[in-house]
Every structure is written in structure tokens, then in C-alpha cells.
Design goal:
- Keywords: Signal.
- Strands 2, 4, 5, 7, 8 and 9 form a six-stranded mixed β-sheet that branches. A three-stranded antiparallel β-sheet has the order 1-3-6, with no helix packed on it.
- The protein is globular and about 80 Å long.
- By secondary structure, it is α+β, with helices and mostly antiparallel strands.
- It has a domain of 98 residues: Immunoglobulin-like.
- It is built from three helices and nine strands, in the order ααβββββββββα.
- 18% of the residues are buried.
Amino acid sequence: MFASKLTAVFAVFAAAATAVSAAPAAVFSKPKTDIVFRPHITSPKAGDVWPIGSNQTVTWDTSDIPEEARNQTGLILLGYLVGDDTDEHLGVNDPLAYNFPITAGSAQVTVPAVKTRDDYVIVLFGDSGNTSPKFTIKDSAATSLPGLPSLSLPSVASSVFPPAIPSVTTSVVSLTSPSASVSASAAASA
């Protein structure tokens, strides 16, 4: 009985080996290649200063985007670099922009309320991440806005996706002055 089971297992392996050896060589000769591109970020530039709460434009070069990647969408994250550390400390839960065509070449972002530093970077994800030069985000009296939400950038691996998309709820309250209604009625009857 053991011999018959062993013979059956051997027969299965022999059949698999025969099938593999009979496969056309072309299947194995041309491996699939992944197309990776890293669009060069042209803004922000090294030394730029972005005030908290301001609207800024992140720009990148679109001239080298391969045809196969032209329908991809992008994601822009804020991060910072400390010394020679390779961790980009990306704010993966708070994207500055997302779901824009990578071929657009630019995206508008609002600078979040973060700690003043001179080692912030923008990372553009489309097909692969690309990092801007270091720049500064600064809190100044002219740009401090009361009630501006604070953003913390945890040290998280940059492969955490998809980012959480915050939701915003607003309400409108209309106030009517009773004396204004009476005055309007009196004026209408006069």
C-alpha cells in the first residue's frame, strides 16, 4: 500500500516536470518589467519659506512620464528629514493633496499648522515617491490663524496606504433681529 502511494506521488511529480519542460521557451525568456518613474519636483525649492495657512503650489516635471503611467493619480505628503536619517517622517494620515492626475504637473496645497522647521520636504507619489529639497514652514504673526487645525507628522513607514481622508462638517446659522422685522413692517405700512 505504501509503495502504491509513493508511486502515485512520483507519477504526479513526473507529469509536472514533463509539463514544465514542454512549455514554450518564450514564456520564460521575457520577464515582465515594472515601469518606475520619479518626476522631479520643481517647487518647493531649497530654502523656500512657506507660511502656515498659506496656499502654495507644488510643481513637478512631467516630461519623463512614460505612456503606460499617464493615467495614474498622485498623492502629496509633507515630511521632514533629521540630519542624515533616511526616515522622511511622512504625514501619511494627512495628505496635502491626493487623487490628481500625475500629468497635471502641479497641485495646490494649504500649509498645515505644524512646528516651525527648516527641514520639511514634499514627497510626490505617482508611480514612485520623489522628494523635494528641504524647505521651511514658519509660523509668523501675519500668518497665524485662530482655529487652524494642527497637524502632527508621526514617524511612520511611507508604505502605509491608503491615507485616511478627513471629513469636514460645516453648519450655517441665520439670525434675524426682531426689531429689524418690526421696522420693516412699519415702513411697509407707512
